Amino acid sequence: MDGKRLCMHGQIIQEVEHHTVDSSLAWKWLTHANLKIETEALVTACQEQAIATNYMKAEIMKSGNDLKCRLCRTCNETIHHSALMEQHEEKVKKLSEECISESGVTKEAVEKAWNGEFDEGDDKLKEHMFCFAKKMGSMSEEGKINEEAVKKVLSELVKDEGEVSAIMDKCVAEKDSPKDTAFEMSKCIHLSILRAGADA
To answer: pTM of the prediction?
Structure first.
């Protein structure tokens, strides 16, 4: 086969003898296969420290056994999945809407909470927070906190491990009731993240 007709994978064509490769065909193959887009997604994932996915830890590094995404808990956590953060947002939105329906809380109260305004006297908001925590796997039906699950989600939102530990120590504690636990933990974590973002 004529080497001039071979398409090289990626930008490696710059590293070979040009007379052996048809660079126009290589570039056409690269762009038509959408590899430029996928490469950008991979670079983004690396920059966001999403490269150490649960799937990679379990299947390649053999240092874990949980394949599921730390945020949506439905798909295997691969680089490709991590690059598509819209799926996480859709999952969170879906769970929140389910809990709004189940708890009877107003959407306005939930929106205010996510903006940092938590109404201590809104029992339906507390029920919503407990519902959401259960669906995310951070609390059990009995109201027990799953610290590992909380830390996994928190680690996706806060990159500094020291800050993650500080927030965990400050916010993760069981209160008098499951609803109070979910409410106080959610409020504490959310406000801590908002403050960290403001100080950055």
So the answer is: 0.58
